[in-house]
Specification:
Keywords: Membrane, Transmembrane, Transmembrane helix. This protein is an all-alpha fold. It has a domain of 31 residues.
Length: 61
C-alpha cells in the first residue's frame, strides 16, 4: 500500500527538483560543463533522501 503512494510521490519530487535545478542553472548562468555534475549530485542526494524516507515509512507502518 505504501509503495502505491510513494512511487508517484518520488517521481513528482525528482521532477520538481530537476525543474528547480534547471532554473538555478539558468539564473546563475552556470557553465554548460558544470551543469551535469550539479544535476547528478542533486539527483543522487534526493534519491538517497527518498529511499531513506521510504524505508523509514516501511519500518514504522
Amino acid at each position: 500500500m505504501v509503495t502505491l503512494f510513494f512511487v508517484p510521490f518520488a517521481i513528482f519530487v525528482l521532477f520538481t527538483f530537476n525543474s528547480l535545478t534547471h532554473s538555478l542553472c539558468l539564473k546563475t548562468e552556470m557553465a554548460v560543463e558544470k551543469q551535469p555534475k550539479v544535476f547528478r549530485t542533486i539527483n543522487i542526494l534526493i534519491t538517497i533522501l527518498l529511499l531513506s524516507s521510504y524505508f523509514d515509512v516501511l519500518i514504522h507502518s
